[in-house]
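[audit] Reproducing an earlier prediction to check determinism. Same input, same settings, fresh worker. If the tokens differ from the archived copy the diff job will pick it up downstream; this log only records the rerun itself.
[audit] input (156 residues):
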Amino acid sequence: MTVRYELKEDVAIPETQAEKPSRPVLQSMMRGAFNRCMNCGQGRLFDGFLQTRHACDKCGEEFHHHRADDAPPYFTITIVGHIIIPALLIVEVMWRPAIWIHMSIWLPLTVLLSFALMRPIKGALVGLQWALYMHGFDPESEDEFPVAPPDSERIT
């Protein structure tokens, strides 16, 4: 079976867009994990514990449109679970301590690890989004959110 495609002469071929400059993914993720601007590496990414700044105070790169959403807690739970559960099982098999000893060790350790890893993981995910031109970090993309209708067209 042979397939042939014939192009008509009057069909306009769309122009290819200029390739965007590549951004270093690992460097961007590391800068985000260490609370640094992914673009310049000088400004801070976070304003509070998990609240990102609107923009970098050094180079002006905007951060407000990132979409980390539920990914940082998901990855944090996965990583903490893979650390705590094997350690708990090893301690249980080797020494068989009382339950109150398990509770006094593993509950605080789980909470501390979760708080320690949440911010670097969120920063790394924002850095990944920036490096891959995702969710508003692409200057050539259109807005992902629809414009709100005027008050006269809203349904009440």
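[audit] rerun output stored. Observation attached for the diff report: DSSP finds three helices and no strands in the chain.
[audit] end
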